[in-house]
Write a structure and sequence with these properties.
By secondary structure, the protein is an alpha+beta fold. The protein has helices at 10-14, 20-28, 40-50, 96-108, 118-121, 138-143, 151-155, 164-170, 177-184, 208-222, 226-238, 288-299, 306-312, 380-396, and strands at residues 55-61, 67-73, 89-90, 127-128, 131-132, 260-262, 270-271, 285-286, 316-317, 327-328, 333-339, 342-346, 349-351, 354-360, 367-372, 374-376. The two termini are 36 Å apart.
């Protein structure tokens, strides 16, 4: 979400309520008992806050297993309390690596094939307006090379759907997987993968529809809900005690921080903490600690056998996702974020009022996770995103030689 721009939003937030500047400034330096990591992580968290984010929480773990964390801003604009250390938050599309892991484990077990077509598992579901499920494989879905329309682009394509009033009206109303896919089918595909070798498709286009379908296929293949498979294959084995799939609940467990959204054309920050939404494409709630545990287990081979992990890391160019050099694999992306060709694996996710950013080294020895509790539908979002990603890069990338 958001567009490119350089404006900071400190003054914009101050205008949102009487006394707000004092509340946020007082909390930005951290609360008593916050860790002292030498100042770098705190500095970078404050830099994210300075772009206009109401609250920021970040945690890192290095190759020696040492953890650092920092926070800035406030958990709620009404009381000025700091963001809780173990805050739950919606991870949005950071759910996609979880879904990809489930699918790849099923591939390793021989239950599912990456070259299986959508039509094989979901007959007639992907059809109409030029859409053709016989031309799209599971691998196309996971790598985002299917060409299918993104149902969220259609859902929020009308500006009237992005207002505080529209948000409040729909925040408790769930939308089924079938309804989401049917909405995508009202649009023609951007392309159709080759009928002879669809998995060889290298054209890339981000679509949440792909992962809704992947979740539906997991359910068809196992006879269990997507939520059950994620729990039994990932959450429970890794001991992710603060990771959950909320289903149709609009609530985030406590402790948490309020998520705020600045809707298009409106400078007011609206509390959008309550919201139903997301399944296999973006429905998980977690914490920074649990996200780091998951990322390290993903990259160090705990969750996937070598063959499946290699397939996950088999990428196609996806510069629209992050920038020059970015490539997208099966549910995870890589970009040269450390200079000299060195890079990090990552994904990231957004939901109303919250941004999740994550990154992990290739061998899984170090990882970082951040939650930023503000979404802005204008150029200010880019500054926030840039500062958040720089915070993770600074924490994970090797220091330049000579430092």
């Amino acid at each position: 979400m958001g567009t490119r721009g350089t404006a900071l939003v400190r003054l914009g937030i101050a205008a949102a309520g009487v006394g707000l500047t004092a509340l946020v400034t007082g909390a930005a330096a951290g609360a008593a008992g916050d860790p002292d990591d030498g100042g770098a992580l705190r500095r970078d968290a404050r830099a994210v806050w300075a772009t206009g984010a109401t609250g920021v929480l970040v945690e890192t773990r290095d190759a020696d297993g040492d953890t650092a964390w920092a926070r800035a801003g406030v958990a709620d604009l009404a009381d000025g309390e700091p963001v809780p250390r173990a805050a739950y938050f919606r991870i949005g599309s950071d759910t996609k690596p979880f879904t990809a892991v489930v699918a790849l484990q099923l591939v390793a077990e021989g239950v599912l094939g990456l070259d299986d077509t959508v039509e094989q598992w979901l007959p007639g579901v992907v059809s109409g307006n030029g859409n053709d499920g016989t031309r799209i494989t599971v691998e196309n879905l996971l790598r985002q090379t299917s060409g299918l329309a993104n149902y969220t682009d259609i859902l929020f394509g009308d500006p009237s759907a992005l207002t505080p009033e529209a948000y409040r009206e729909s925040r408790f109303t769930p939308m089924s997987d079938e309804e989401q896919v049917a909405l995508a089918m009202t649009r023609p595909p951007l392309w159709l993968p080759s009928a002879n070798d669809p998995a060889a498709e290298t054209r890339w286009g981000y679509s949440n529809t792909n992962y809704v379908l992947a979740g539906m296929i997991v359910e068809e293949a196992t006879g269990n809900s997507w939520e059950q498979e994620v729990h039994e294959r990932i959450i429970e084995p890794l001991g992710l005690d603060h990771t959950l799939t909320p289903g149709t609940s609009a609530y985030v467990p406590r402790p948490t921080a309020s998520g705020y959204t600045r809707f298009p054309g409106d400078d007011e920050l609206v509390d959008t903490t309550l919201a139903v939404g997301g399944g296999a494409d973006g429905g998980i709630i977690s914490t920074t600690h649990d996200m780091i545990t998951f990322l390290r287990a993903l990259m160090d081979g705990t969750l996937l056998a070598p063959e499946q992990l290699a397939r996950m890391k088999d990428t196609v160019p996806a510069e629209d996702f992050y920038g020059p050099g970015t490539a997208y694999g099966l549910g995870i992306a890589w970009a040269p974020r450390c200079g000299d060709g060195e890079g990090l694996w990552f994904h990231g996710g957004t939901s109303f009022g919250t941004v999740s950013e994550t990154a992990v080294t290739d061998d899984g020895t170090a990882a970082a996770s951040a939650a930023v509790f503000t979404i802005t539908f204008d150029e200010r979002q880019q500054a926030q995103d840039d500062a958040t990603r720089a915070m993770l890069d600074n924490a994970l990338c090797p220091a330049p030689s000579g430092d």
